[in-house]
């Protein structure tokens, strides 16, 4: 099962929805990893015939099943960064009426949402659904470096090496949660790392 | 005192544009600066018309950055309740008047990559200010302006002169119609559409955009409803402990104000939500005319917008 029930949190924490097929002549779906399951859930031959699907497998094996949906266009990217040029070009060329669906990890959805908002679509018009890993994209508030796919709290910043506490405070601009030094007062005094939602 | 803060002004220019539309310029009596505003804002003009105080909203059409004066354009409505006739027939150069601070219920969404303006008739006025604002910000915009005929196309010459590439005109008497469906389809992602004009035009644009998958937040519209005359009725104001009579030619809000009861308002045209009033009891039917309450709220009969809505029946009690 790829769905995860996020606990209640502060207002800055993003709330993801559930995809539903919408009316429209053109659809753009961006999915990573288990996000494939949300695409499979809403896919109909009619919808997929009008859909450009951009997919980042992240080591999963959904590609064949997605291809079997016969999307109008299908692109498989090795990473979000690699898919980014493609995403930007599709958005540049798109017209109003395009329906945007994002599904998979929080990190991918947050970054893709930023791209869509950059071209002027309000975030309220973008559909999202979280699936799969609940790992977070974290920004170190000290060195500003980003660490992807963080699963434990506290964790070590992949840029400056500080021990960071995983906060629910989220930046839409950075598409990242904030990580704050956990042993600032008493260096080396670290709580035992555990899963973020444990 | 309800409504936005007031400014004392004097009429410094009256310019007839065509057989229906006249432009008025206001400057502060004390010679000071007027507040800046954002394109799409309106001001509520107070008119002392015999025993009646009329308060009508008009879109500001001058540059939002020009603090020396404001201009509005008023279309004469011979069938209306008299506000526009008062402006056309009674207001003279040098008259002192009271207007409100600007209030904007039709602002640009500056996150948009492109602004598509659709104007019908006198609905052009808010766009004149928005265009001036966007020109300074180097914004990307396009205007489609539909009028009855060339003679009534206020500001069309000026617009085509200054912005020949952005301005597109349509005249009803030449059977020219905006090709709305294709126009909307061809817009780049991130376009916001703004429509100001008669109700039929607003509905047409909203429905076409929604059928074509435009997000609601990218579709903006402004329609000031003028209160419509209707059958007289009685209202009990519970808090003020008064029973008041609403005449045929006044709105419920105007009747409340006439009785000296302070009631909130901003737009006086059913758009802003400020005047929302709780209904404590009723026996009869509401004539809801606002754009504010949802259909469910209208059906529930627990709220009324006194600036434009009326009541027909035996008894109405308001929490005011
Ligand atoms: S005053 Fe704005 S809705 Fe009534």
Characterization of the model:
The complex is a heterodimer of chains A (198) and B (320). Chain A has two domains: 27-130, Nucleotide-binding domain of ferredoxin-NADP reductase (FNR) module (Rossmann fold); 136-195, no CATH class. Chain A is 22% helix and 29% strand. Chain A is built from five helices and twelve strands. Chain A has helices spanning 35-42, 45-48, 63-67, 80-93, 106-118, and strands at residues 27-32, 51-56, 73-76, 99-104, 126-130, 136-140, 146-150, 152-153, 155-156, 163-171, 176-181, 194-195. Chain A has a five-stranded parallel β-sheet with strand order 3-2-1-4-5, with helices on both faces. In chain A, helix 4 packs parallel to helix 5. The two termini of chain A are 18 Å apart. In chain B, strand 8, helix 2 and strand 9 form a beta-alpha-beta unit. Chain B has helices at residues 83-89, 125-137, 156-162, 180-185, 199-211, 252-258, 295-300, and strands at residues 6-16, 21-28, 41-49, 52-59, 70-75, 96-100, 103-104, 114-120, 141-147, 167-171, 191-196, 219-222, 233-237, 242-246, 277-287, 303-304, 310-318. In chain B, the strands form three sheets. In chain B, strands 1, 2, 3, 4, 5, 6 and 7 form a seven-stranded antiparallel β-sheet that branches. A five-stranded parallel β-sheet of chain B has the order 10-9-8-11-12, with helices on both faces. A five-stranded mixed β-sheet of chain B has the order 14-13-17-15-16. Chain B is α/β, with parallel strands linked by helices. Chain B has three domains: 6-104, Elongation Factor Tu (Ef-tu), domain 3 (Beta Barrel), CATH 2.40.30; 114-222, Rossmann fold; 233-318, Beta-grasp domain (Ubiquitin-like (UB roll), Roll). Chain A binds chain B through residues 22-25, 91-92, 94-99, 117, 119-122, 124-125, and chain B through 109, 111-114, 184-192, 211-218. Chain A: Pfam families: DmmA-like_C, DmmA-like_N. Chain A: Keywords: 2Fe-2S, Flavoprotein, Iron, Iron-sulfur, Metal-binding, Oxidoreductase. Chain A: Residues 137-180 form the Dimethylamine monooxygenase subunit DmmA-like C-terminal domain. Chain A: Residues 9-126 form the Dimethylamine monooxygenase subunit DmmA-like N-terminal domain. Chain A: InterPro entries: DmmA-like_C, DmmA-like_N.
């Amino acid at each position: 099962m790829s769905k995860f029930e996020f606990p209640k949190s502060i207002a800055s924490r993003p709330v993801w929805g559930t995809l539903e097929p919408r009316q429209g002549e053109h659809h753009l779906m961006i999915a990573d990893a288990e996000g494939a399951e949300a695409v499979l859930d809403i896919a109909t031959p009619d919808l997929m015939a009008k859909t450009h699907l951009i997919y980042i497998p992240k080591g999963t094996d959904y590609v064949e099943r997605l291809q079997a949906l016969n999307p109008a266009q299908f692109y498989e990217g090795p990473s979000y960064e690699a898919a980014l040029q493609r995403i930007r070009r599709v958005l540049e060329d798109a017209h109003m009426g395009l329906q945007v669906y994002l599904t998979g990890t929080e990190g991918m959805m947050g970054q893709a949402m930023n791209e869509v908002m950059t071209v002027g679509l309000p975030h309220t018009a973008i559909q999202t659904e979280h699936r799969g890993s609940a790992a977070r994209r974290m920004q170190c508030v000290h060195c500003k470096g980003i660490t992807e796919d963080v699963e434990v709290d506290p964790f070590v910043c992949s840029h400056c090496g500080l021990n960071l506490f995983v906060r629910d405070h989220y930046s839409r601009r950075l598409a990242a949660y904030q990580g704050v030094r956990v042993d600032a007062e008493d260096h080396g005094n670290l709580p035992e790392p555990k899963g973020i939602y444990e | 005192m309800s409504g936005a803060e007031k400014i004392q002004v004097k009429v410094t220019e009256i310019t007839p544009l065509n057989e229906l539309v006249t432009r008025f310029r206001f400057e502060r009596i004390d010679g000071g600066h007027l507040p800046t505003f954002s394109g799409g804002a309106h001001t509520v003009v107070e008119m002392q018309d015999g025993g009646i105080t009329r308060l009508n909203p008009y879109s500001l059409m001058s540059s939002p950055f020009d603090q020396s004066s404001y201009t509005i354009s008023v279309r004469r409505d011979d069938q209306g309740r008299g506000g526009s006739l008062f402006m056309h027939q009674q207001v003279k150069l040098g008259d002192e008047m009271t207007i409100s601070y600007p209030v904007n219920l039709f602002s640009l969404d500056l996150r948009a990559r492109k602004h598509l303006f659709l104007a019908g008739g006198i609905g052009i006025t808010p766009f004149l200010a928005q265009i001036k604002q966007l020109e300074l910000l180097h914004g990307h915009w396009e205007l489609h302006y539909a009028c009855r005929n060339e003679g009534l196309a206020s500001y069309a010459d000026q617009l085509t002169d200054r912005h020949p590439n952005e301005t597109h005109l349509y005249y009803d008497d030449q059977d020219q119609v905006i090709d709305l469906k294709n126009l909307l389809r061809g817009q780049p992602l991130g376009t916001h559409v703004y429509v100001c004009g008669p109700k039929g035009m607003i509905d047409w644009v909203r429905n076409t955009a929604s059928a074509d998958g435009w997000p609601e937040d990218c579709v903006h519209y402004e329609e000031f409803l003028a209160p419509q005359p209707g059958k007289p009725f009685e209202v009990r104001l519970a808090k003020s402990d008064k029973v008041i009579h609403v005449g045929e030619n006044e709105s419920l809000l105007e009747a409340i104000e006439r009785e000296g009861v302070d009631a909130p308002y901003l737009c006086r045209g059913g758009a802003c939500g400020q005047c929302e009033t709780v209904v404590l009891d009723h026996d009869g039917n509401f004539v809801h005319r606002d754009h504010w309450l949802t259909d469910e709220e209208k059906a529930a009969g627990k709220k009324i917008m006194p600036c434009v809505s009326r009541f027909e029946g035996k008894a109405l009690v308001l929490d005011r």
